[in-house]
Amino acid sequence: DGGSTAQQSAGQSADIDLSRPSIARVYDAVLGGKDNYEVDRVVADQVRLDMPHISDVGWFNRAVLGRGVRYLAAETGINQFLDLGAGLPTLENTHQVAQRHDPEARVVYVDIDPIVLAHGRALLEENEHTAVVTADLREPEKVLANPNVRRLIDFDKPVGVLLIGILHHLHDDEDPKGIVDAYMDAVPAGSHLMITAFCDTGPEARAVEETMLEFLGTGRFRTMDEITAYFDGFELLDPGVVALPMWRPEGPVATPLSIAQRLMVGGVARKN
Ligand code: SAM
């Protein structure tokens, strides 16, 4: 059982709280990973009652992360990425996608959960061009001043700022747009912003939001307009903010989309 393997190694780390579910571990459970515990799987199962295809939603999100990073690396030439709310390693992590185009591409993974460093370091820091930083992305000044961030990211050159599957974990009074802008203020023209988030698409979405609020303490599924407003001040690239499977798909996508396909939306914008 993968969970017990995770438990043994995590038992050595005093930082990892096994008494409560964590966002990173619940997401890992949703994706079918092994770095999660019973307390997390209970939440994943609860979400699955609201949204039977929640694992697909997670994989739509990972797929669009791959397409977005591939686009940025191949078409814009960006070769440095700040991956905020990075999560535990899974398939096709940002550096693996980016370094396929440019083996020197640099990626800093930032996550508040120490398990990402504990379990992710071996995979996410597999070369000298990648680092994992344990920090709270709601404190952009601290993140931007972090020595590993400064070491790997050249703030005079365009940066890919990734906020994938994370902004719905920020409450309104935490000023998510202000946080987005703080990162974008720190990077030069030519930098790009990629965001994906859960969207308030109807009763099923609201049920997932309620479950997340109850079990994880966060969950704010914003409307299409609210999510689009994250990109205010930047040039939103085609096709705009759309359901994830519709963002630059690699093949035909059958419509109408299912509820699971529409549950998360995202887009990419350029700072001019
Ligand atoms: N970006 C990855 C993806 O989309 O596949 C992972 C998304 S996961 C749903 C959200 C991650 O954000 C979790 O790993 C969680 O620990 C992290 N997180 C939550 N709040 C955070 C914060 N305030 N600062 C940094 N990371 C945070």
Characteristics of this structure?
272 residues, alpha/beta, Rossmann fold, 44% helix, disordered N terminus, binds S-adenosylmethionine
Topology:
Elements: H1 2-11, H2 23-30, H3 38-50, H4 54-76, E1 80-84, H5 94-101, E2 106-111, H6 114-124, E3 130-134, H7 140-145, H8 147-152, E4 160-164, H9 176-185, E5 192-198, H10 203-216, H11 224-229, E6 235-236, E7 242-243, H12 259-262, E8 264-270
Parallel strand pairs: 1-2, 1-4, 2-3, 4-5
Antiparallel strand pairs: 5-8, 6-8, 7-8
Bound molecules: S-adenosylmethionine (SAM).
S-adenosylmethionine is lined by residues 23-24, 27, 61-62, 65, 85-87, 110-113, 116, 136-138, 164-166, 169.
Largest sheet: 8 strands, mixed
**Rg from alpha-carbon coordinates:** 17 Å
Number of strands: 8
Name of the top-level CATH class: Alpha Beta
Average of the residue pLDDT scores: 94
Query: How many domains comprise the coordinates?
Result: 1
Description:
The chain is of the alpha/beta class and 272 residues long. It has one domain: Vaccinia Virus protein VP39 (Rossmann fold, 3-Layer(aba) Sandwich). 44% of the residues lie in helices and 14% in strands. It is built from 12 helices and 8 strands. It has helices spanning 2-11, 23-30, 38-50, 54-76, 94-101, 114-124, 140-145, 147-152, 176-185, 203-216, 224-229, 259-262, and strands at residues 80-84, 106-111, 130-134, 160-164, 192-198, 235-236, 242-243, 264-270. α9 (176-185) links the parallel β4 and β5 (192-198). α3 runs antiparallel to α10 and α4 runs parallel beside α5 (94-101). The structure holds S-adenosylmethionine. S-adenosylmethionine is lined by residues 23-24, 27, 61-62, 65, 85-87, 110-113, 116, 136-138, 164-166, 169.
